[in-house]
């Protein structure tokens, strides 16, 4: 990595240790969502070779336990870990009639699509607000990268995707796209 070119690393948390098999009522799906936000994560066996471990002194992360646990597993207790609610995942709430049992994916996808359309945002952050927060998070990471040569974030799939979009609009180039896989690393550099 060139020290003159600022880099930003977006990392998704490790896989949460929670069962999502079977069929769920709406109440069970809502409980799953709550449990997911508090779940421990799988142990990380292998670190990405794309992370410049010797240069990382400070890591930003979401306030949700799965992001913090992932950051500590990846970078150890000696790194300065900065937890910030700006980096929390986009909120979600289960939508649907309280009858019937469906696979968890049905509850999640239906609820998320309706949220994206603005039809499922009662008592939670709207999609518009979430995108604005992602842009704010991107600006925060840009300031860090420009001041220190790099910025590292351990957060969530949806949020990281919208941070990446915001950074690309600002002229950052994706040099490695880890996608939304668990512990996926996306690396961007200033073009």
TrEMBL record:
Alphabetical list of Pfam families matching this protein: His_Phos_1
InterPro entries: His_Pase_superF_clade-1, His_PPase_superfam
Recorded superkingdom: Bacteria
Name of this protein: Phosphoglycerate mutase
């Amino acid at each position: 990595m060139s020290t003159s070119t600022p880099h930003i690393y977006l990392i998704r948390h490790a896989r949460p240790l929670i069962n999502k098999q079977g069929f769920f009522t709406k109440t069970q799906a809502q409980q799953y969502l709550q449990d997911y936000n508090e779940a421990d994560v799988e142990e990380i066996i292998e670190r990405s070779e794309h992370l410049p471990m010797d240069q990382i002194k400070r890591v930003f992360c979401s306030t949700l336990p799965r992001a913090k646990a992932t950051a500590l597993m990846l970078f150890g207790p000696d790194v300065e870990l900065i937890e910030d609610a700006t980096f929390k995942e986009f909120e979600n709430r289960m939508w649907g009639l309280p009858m019937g049992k469906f696979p968890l994916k049905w509850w999640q996808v239906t609820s998320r699509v309706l949220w994206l359309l603005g039809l499922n945002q009662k008592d939670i952050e709207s999609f518009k607000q979430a995108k604005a927060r992602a842009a704010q998070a991107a600006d925060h990471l840009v300031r860090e990268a420009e001041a220190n040569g790099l910025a590292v974030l351990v957060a969530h799939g949806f949020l990281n995707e919208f941070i990446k979009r915001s950074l690309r609009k600002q002229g950052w180039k994706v040099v490695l796209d880890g996608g939304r896989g668990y512990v996926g690393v996306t690396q961007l550099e200033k073009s």
